[in-house]
Amino acid sequence: TRRSSDLDSSYSRNSTYNTYIGMGYIIPGMDQGLQGVCIGEWRRIIIPPHLGYGEEGAGEKIPGSAVLIFDIHVIDFHNPTDEVEITITHKPEVCNVTSKKGDFVKYHYNCSLLDGT
After folding, report:
1. Beta strand pairing call for 104-113 and 8-9
2. C-alpha angle 49/30/4, rounded to 5°?
3. Tell me, what's the pLDDT at 7?
4. Would the pLDDT of 51 be above 60?
5. Residues 6+ apart with CB under 8 A from 54
6. pTM for this model (two decimals)
7. Three-state DSSP class for 109?
């Protein structure tokens, strides 16, 4: 669910954010933070400026040198070269499958700045 302090949220668009990880399509901190996740996992990823938007920031919402906090919920992932079928389950007790570089990950997220603005 979107929080009032969020500067961006996939929940407000009622759509998951979908991307390949480890391939440079997203900020480096998120590329690193999404590796090793399980389907159904909730994770907080705190990204320092040098792995986010740097000293320049991004647009009007993210100032320079901002520390970003992403609270994510992984809905599904797959690798286009996989030959296995992934069935989404509700919070599995054991996670034997984890995401890796090159995976296409779909997840909901809330993002805010460390300073609360």
Report:
1. antiparallel
2. 75
3. 84
4. yes
5. 64, 65
6. 0.68
7. strand
Nearest by Cα to 34 from 87, 89, 77, 86: 77
pLDDT band at 62 (very low <50, low <70, confident <90, very high): very high
43-77 burial: b if 16+ Cβ within 10 Å, else e:
bebebebebbbeeeeeeeebbeebebbbbbbbbeb
**Residues contacting 11, CB < 8 A, separation 6+:** 1, 2, 108, 109, 110
Q: Are 49 and 66 in contact (CB under 8 A)?
A: yes
Answer whether 21's CB lies under 8 Å from 37's CB.
no
Considering only 46-50, 89-93, 113-117, which range has the smallest mean pLDDT?
89-93
